[in-house]
Structure formats: C-alpha cells, structure tokens
Specification:
Chain lengths: ~140, ~450
C-alpha cells in the first residue's frame, strides 16, 4: 500500500506530467492593446487572419516549435485544429503567397522572453509558467 | 523540417552562394561573408510535391488536369494527372518588402519547369499590401492552391468544376489586398488585374495541335470573411478578351472567308439579283463565325470552408458566362464533407458542372440550293463547327470518396476513387477525347503521397 502511495505521489510530482495537465493560457506583451480575448479571436490571431490590435499596432504571434505537446494542445483546445490540419492551412498560405506562419521559439522559457520583449507579440504557455513580464489575456478555464 | 519558416541556413549552400554572390561585390573574403550574411539572412526556401499514381479504366478518355497537359493519364496506371514538384524561394530584404519565386514541374507536362509565381510584395501600412508580377490565379475558392496537394483535403479540387479555371494557373499583373477585422470577423478584400496565356490543346485533332490562348485585361475582386471555424469567399472576375489562335483555327477562318466570299460572288449574277440581300446577310453571318472560340468570360464564385468539431465542410458554387455561343454558359457546384479521426480524414465529394442548352447557331451555313459545290463546302463547315461545339462542352459530374492519412509531419497519403460522367457520349467534358461518341463513364483510382518541406 505504501508502495502504491509513493508511486502515485511521484507521478503527481513529476513536473512534466503535472504541467501537461495544465491548460495552456494565451499571454501577450504588456503593451498589447487588449487585456482579454476569446478563443475565436485567439484562433484568428494565430492563423494570422487578424493582424492588428484594436489600436492599429501589428500583432506578432509566436509559436512553439512543431512537435511540442503544448503547441498541439493549444491548437487542439483553442482552435479546434489538429497538427495535420494546421500544417495544411499554412501550406496553403505559404504556397499561394498569402501568408507565412508565426515565428517559432524552442521552449516556454524562450516564449516568455520573446513575448515580454517584443511589442505587439502574443504567445501561449502553461498556466503555471507564465512569466512575470507577460500578461495572461486568455485563460480557457475562466472563459 | 519546417515548411516556410525554415531559414536558408544549409551550410554548404550558404558557402556556395557566398562564393557566387559575393564574388560580385568584393574579393576580400571577410567582407564577402558579411555581405552574404546581410543578403541571405532573410531567405526562405521551401517546396511541395505530389507523387500521384492514377488508374483510369477508360480507353477513350484521358484524364487531364487542364487543357495544356501534354501527356494525359490514359487507360491504366499513370503518374501524369497529379504528380508535381514545386520549389519556392522567398527573400524579405526589408520589413515590409518581399520577393517570391515559385516554379513547378508537372509529370503531365513532361516535368518542364513552369513559373507559377514571381512577384514583389509591398506592405502599405498594417492592413494593405500590393503584389506586382506573376501570382497564382485567385479566381475561384481553391484555384490558387490546386497544385499543392498537401494543402488540400482531397487529391485535387474536383476537376469537373475546376476545369473552367485550371487552364490559367497564374496571372501576370498586380493585386491589392486589404485585411480588416470587424465584429470578430476577419475580412480580406482582394482586387486583381492582369493578363495570362497558355497553350490550349485540341485533343480531338490528329495529331493533337495547340492554340495560343491569350487572356487580356482580366480584372477581378474577391471578398472573404473568416471567423475561427469558417471562411466564406465570394469573387467575380471579368475578362475583356480571351482569344485562341492556331493554324487549325486559321484554316477554319480561311474556309469561312472563302464561303462568305463565294456567297458574295453569287450576288454578281443578274439572275440572283432578287436574292442578293439574303445572300449578303448570310455571307456576313458566316464571317461572324470566324475565331469561334474568342470570348469575354465572366466568372462568379461563392465558396466556403468550415470546421465543426471533427467535421470539415467545403462547398462552392460557380458560374461562367463566356458571352460566346461556342464556349457557352455554365453553372456548377461542389460539396465535400470530411470527418477527422486521429490522423485519418475520410471524405466524400460531389461536383457538377452543366452547360446551358444554347449552342452556336450554324444555320447561316445551311445550303443555298444554288450551287452544289458551294453547298458541299457549307455543309462541311457546318459539320466542323457543330463538332467543335460538341468537343467544347465541359459539362460533367463527379462523385469522389477517399481518405487522407497524415502519415507524419509534412507528409500525407491519399487514396481516392472518382466516378466521373458526362451528360452523354457526345459530350467529352474535361477529358482528352479524340473521337465522339465515347464511353462517357470514367472511374479513376488515385494513390498519392503529398509532401512539403
């Protein structure tokens, strides 16, 4: 019994698994012209259908690299699109000359850093990993 | 490997380009490398391709993507319908300025390199951009993407419907895009203007001959509205002049000229004085049949692409009014439903394109009863024009079922079955048909690998 209790505690305390259960939140540069967006707006921003904030400044969406679990979860939960659908969408945009996908960063730490330092930028991180220099503008658990 | 964000950082290629490019700027290698880095840091190289194997069960109807296709996918197995390789290079030297070049090679055109895009794009502010050069034809909902198999749910947009647009995949001109969001909806207004040309093959002639098709002063506007799970797009395109010139058409014109001249010559006979007005009128009508394929088409399209949970819906209605009796007026639609289960998306699709009943009026070529030789010539010409009108009929409908499997990152596999039929055995639809009547039921089975890099 003690063994099972230890196993369960170990699993719960494994940072990666605990993080994976946290829903991703959308974060933005503190100067971004909004304090709150909904899922629909987030989808349009990350698909680059909407390219400016309400104050007219350019939106700079930042993505995690493809293959990241968080990225898959974000697009699945926020935009309702699978990785394959998303790649097909960007292939269409790229090879028709109508758009290019967002810039990519390697990990959440880098995401926080880039969003904090780039005016107009927007990204996504695990809820408990949002840095102090960014603001959360969409928390799916609260919307 | 990533699709478009992949930087141009292959060490070998960089070094090679350093040598090639910077030799023009400097003989000092340090300066050359710095110059090169400045020049190439914003290059983006990418590509797409499809290896598509198609089985065609019909010996009399070659499957074609468009009327430029040199080698149709004849009966049996063929790579010629869908196989394509595309390479793209984009350079963004300035924040708001970019250059893009895209070339494709299609198996159906013997892998001859074709320039699909070559333009400069300038952003004007945050919502407006303008492109000048060659860009993909935005006339219909999917007309700009139909060679990029990976970007499309099915093996290809239904040929039954897209036969009216596939002949000219690119336009040389300018377009202007204005993006604006309003009420949680992202709008894009696109205006485009340009010219284009292609080789239109007449598969009914033996040997097959090509006409120089020239499309001048093409002007269009498209408005799309996107919400998070649906995009609706409407467009209208006007073509001021769509002409076809070839030796075969010149011969036809020459024959029409001779017949018209023959009728006018008969008015010189005093015995036929009473018939002169009728003969002159008939001669003028015959002259009016020259260059029978020249037209001034107007294309209209309304389409959508929607996601609803695991469902995907695609649909489009199109109309082509060629303002020419030989080419005709068409209406058509397609509707497609897909359902995604993990990496698989099975789908079904139905497409229909119908020509209106009107056809070219060749009654001016009816025999006169005055001269047997002239009447024989008139009858021959009438038969030739009526046959041309039959061969020009693109009406067809298709039902397709298949599945897309996203095998791995940047690679998918598709298996698709198409059943295509035309209204009757005298209507070739969008097939390479050499003789009429023909077996107007065609089954195609396609196994395709699509990739991007």
């Amino acid at each position: 019994m003690k063994f099972y209790f230890l196993v369960i505690c170990s699993v719960l305390l494994m940072p990666g698994l605990v993080q994976a259960e946290e829903p991703p939140v959308v974060v933005a540069n503190p100067d971004a012209g909004v304090d709150k967006i909904d899922k629909s707006q987030a989808t349009q921003i990350f698909l680059r259908q909407i390219q400016t904030w309400p104050d007219g400044k350019t939106i700079q969406p930042i993505d995690l690299k493809e293959g990241s679990e968080l990225r898959t979860e974000f697009y699945s939960k926020i935009t309702g699109r699978s990785p394959g659908q998303l790649r097909a969408y960007w292939a269409r945009q790229a090879f028709t000359g109508m758009g290019v996908p967002p810039k990519e960063v390697g990990n959440v730490e880098e995401m926080n850093k880039v969003v904090e330092s780039t005016p107009g930028s927007i990204g996504y991180v695990d809820k408990n990993e949002a840095g102090p220099g960014v603001k959360i503008i969409l928390d799916p658990e609260k919307n | 490997m990533r699709l478009t964000t992949k930087k141009f950082n292959n060490a070998f290629i960089r070094k090679l380009l350093v040598t090639l490019i910077c030799s023009h700027f400097s003989t000092h290698s340090v300066l050359a490398n710095e110059t090169f880095d400045a020049l190439t840091k914003d290059f983006r190289f990418s590509g797409f391709g499809t290896l598509g194997l198609t089985y065609n069960d019909n010996g009399g109807a070659g499957a074609i993507y468009n009327y430029s296709q040199t080698v149709p996918a004849e009966q049996g197995f063929s790579l010629n319908l869908d196989s394509v390789l595309g390479l793209q290079l984009e350079w963004k030297p300035l924040e708001k300025t970019s250059f893009l070049v895209q070339s494709v090679a299609r198996a159906g055109q013997r892998m001859e390199p074709l320039l699909r895009m070559a333009y400069v794009r300038q952003e004007l502010g945050s919502e407006v951009s303008v492109r000048g050069g060659r860009f993909r034809n935005p006339m219909l909902f999917d007309s700009d993407v139909n060679e990029v198999g990976y970007a499309y749910l099915m093996s290809r947009p239904p040929i039954a419907l897209y036969s009216i647009a596939n002949n000219f995949p690119s336009i040389d001109g300018v377009d202007l895009q204005w993006r604006h969001s309003f009420l949680n909806t992202a709008f894009m207004l696109q205006g485009y203007y340009g010219n284009t040309s292609y080789q239109h093959r007449f598969y009914n002639l033996n040997p097959v001959v090509s006409a120089d098709a020239q499309i001048n002063n093409m002007m269009g506007v498209a408005l799309s509205a996107s919400r998070s799970n649906i995009t609706v797009r409407a467009s209208r395109t006007w073509v001021d002049s769509y002409t076809m010139r070839s030796s075969a058409i010149s011969q036809l014109d020459s024959g029409l000229g001779s017949l018209s001249g023959g009728l006018l010559a008969m008015t010189a006979y005093p015995q036929l004085a009473a018939m002169s007005p009728a003969l002159i009128s008939q001669a003028n009508q015959i002259s009016g049949l020259k260059n029978p394929f020249d037209n001034r088409p107007i294309y209209t399209s309304v389409g959508f692409d929607a996601y609803w949970g695991s469902f995907r819906f695609l649909g489009e209605w199109v109309q082509l009014n060629s303002q020419n009796a030989m080419v005709g007026k068409y209406e058509g639609f397609q509707t497609t439903i897909g359902y995604t289960i993990k990496d698989f998306t099975p789908y079904v699709s139905f497409a229909n394109l119908s020509r209106d009943k009107g056809s070219i009026n060749t009654s001016s070529l009816n025999g006169t009863g005055l001269n047997p030789m002239l009447d024989a010539g008139l009858a021959q010409m009438q038969a030739a024009l009526n046959q041309s009108a039959q061969f020009a009929n693109l009406s067809s409908q298709s039902i397709s079922a298949g599945t897309r499997w996203d095998v791995m990152e940047n690679l998918d596999m598709k298996l698709q079955y198409d059943f295509v039929q035309t209204p009757n055995s005298m209507t070739p639809g969008n097939f390479a048909v050499s003789t009429l009547p023909f077996n107007n039921h065609v089954s195609l089975v396609t196994l395709a690998l699509d990739f991007i890099f």
